[in-house]
Structure formats: structure tokens, C-alpha cells
Amino acid sequence: MILLIITVSFVHNCVYRLDNMDVRSSLLRYISIENRSSICNSVLFYDAIESTQETAIFLAESNSKLEKALIVANEQRQGMGRSGKVWMSPYGGIWFSLIVRPKVASYKSSLLTFIASLSVCDAIRSETGLDSKIKWPNDIVINSKKVSGILTSIGVENTKLKYAILGVGLNSNLDDKSLNLMNKSVGSDYEITSLKRELSDKWTDSGSLLISILQKIGDYHGMLEIDELQFLDKWKTRCETINKHIRVVNKDKSQYEGLASDVASDGSLIIKIANGEIIRVSESDVTILVLAK
User: How far, in Å, CA of 186 to CA of 182, rounded?
Assistant: First the structure.
């Protein structure tokens, strides 16, 4: 395997595989053109890493001035998923974590997950034409099959948000062998797919797709800070969970069903259960299963 040592801007000194030059070249061009006005002004490239999310958290905690830094890898050995689950991240996907320091109240930090999910959803649509949708709170699906997941990690001090790490795993060009392994690992709750599979084996330009995601994160980050209601309305147009009959599975494995009627301003899901009671659930509390009609 050939490795390339690169240095870009003021953070980087990592290794990246030459056979994925489209991502590297696209990011370098993006940073050069956009400079510090963009959502990303520095990049750490890795061929293989334990977790881009863990690395980003360490960097954010170590340097309070570090922001708009992107950690991206060809592969993750221990990618982080929700609730401590491992996110399988073989070669052929887009795996990255972005450090931001947003002006958002800590109790609304789940809206940062919405920024990432809407950005990934819209980027897939614009770059591939696929009808991607958001499954509350953090999954991107195509034909009800999962193609991407979002994980947001935050640092809080005295109730104030110090930083947020937007972690994205996107199955762009995964082969069938990798997808089959993923599907075996998650069981039967949902099916995992890739853009390549949904495009009948057509390869996706990962560099262009990643740049599109970053640009949209920047746009929606600005929209959220200026007009929260407009941002939420935009997000809701992409969410497939709203107005669907769902099953809620709590951490203690207890379950109930109801209609997902709306999403509140703090990102929680509003559910109307059978007896007419209205309840709210947060993304850390439950697993949501969309039921067939």
C-alpha cells in the first residue's frame, strides 16, 4: 500500500491512500478556494483510524480554539455509533467528523444532528438524483434502507456548549461483501444499502459528494443561527418519520405505538399515542421503528 504524507493549512500531518485522491484533491481545492469563510478550514487525512469521532473529541478538548477542523478516513476500525454501538466503516465509504463551535443552547444540541442529516440528505439528492430521506433522528434512508448515520458529540461547560462534533458515516461505494456483513451485524430491524447499490453499481464521486455535504452544513448552520423556524421547516420536508405510525422502543425494552405528529423546536419527536396522550421523546431515549401501513 502506498502512503502519502501531506501537510495542509495548520493542523495536518497525516497519511492518506493514493487510490482515493479524488477526496484529497477535492478537499484541498475546497479549502484553498473557500479559505476560512467556509465551514471547514483544515483537514486531517487518515488511511485507517480507530475512530474519527474519538480523534475529533480529543482535539476539541485539547485545543479550545480549534474549530472548523475535519477528520476524514478511508477506514475506521472502531467507528462510533449511537448508544456505544460500533459503526462498521470499511474502505469504500465516507467517514468523517467535523469540529464546530456553534452559537446554540446546549439543550438544543440535537438540532446540530439535524444540520448534518439534512446536509447529507440534500447532497445525496443533488449529486446522485436518489430520493434520500431522513429517518428521525439521525439516519438517511433510500427506499427505506439505511445509507448513512449521524452521530453528534458535544462538550458542555456550565450549561454552555463548548463544541460539537458532527460525525457522518455514509455508505457511498461499498461493495456487496461489505454490505452483506453489515446487514448480518444489525439483524432484521432495517436493511443497510449503499449509493453504489442503489445506483445499479454506478460509482459515486466521493470527493464531490463530501464537498457538497460540507457546503450544505455551512449553509444550514448559518440558517439555524439566523432563522430556526425556517431551518426546521426545511428539515421536516425531508423527514419520512413525521405522519407515520411508529413503534417506540425504550432503553428498558418496553414498547408502545403511536403517530409521529411533529418535531419540537428542541429536536424531540412529538408522538400521539392510542389513548390520545401527547408525549415527546429525545434521540437518546428511544429507538424508532416505522411500521408498515
Answer: 7
Question: What is the DSSP-derived secondary structure letter of residue 175?
Answer: -
Count of CA atoms in the C-beta half-sphere (13 A) of 182: 25
- Give me the residues paired with residue 153 across strands: 165
Q: Kindly tell me the burial class for residue 148, based on how many C-beta atoms sit within 10 Å of its own C-beta (0-12, 13-18, 19 or more).
A: buried
| pLDDT tens-place string over residues 21-35 | 567 667 766 666 655
The secondary structure of residue 203, as a DSSP letter, is: P
pLDDT tens profile 217-245: 999 999 988 899 999 999 999 999 999 99
Q: How far is CA 35 from the centre of its chain?
A: 23
Question: For the chain, which residues make up each domain, given as ranges?
Answer: 3-236, 244-290
Pair 99, 68: CB distance under 8 Å: yes
Is the distance from CB of 100 to CB of 221 less than 8 angstroms?
yes
Please give the single-letter amino acid code of residue 67: E
How far apart, in Å, are the Cα atoms of 263 and each of 43, 48, 136, 268, 279?
A: 34, 37, 9, 6, 11
Burial class of residue 38, CB neighbours in 10 A (0-12, 13-18, 19+): middle
User: Which DSSP state fits 40?
Assistant: -
pLDDT for the residue 35: 53
pLDDT score at 1: 29
For residue 170, report the phi and psi dihedrals to the nearest 5 degrees.
Answer: -130, 120
Whose cell is 444540541? That residue is 109
Confidence (pTM): 0.87
The dotted CATH code for 244-290 is: 2.30.30.100
Domain boundaries 3-236, CATH class: alpha beta
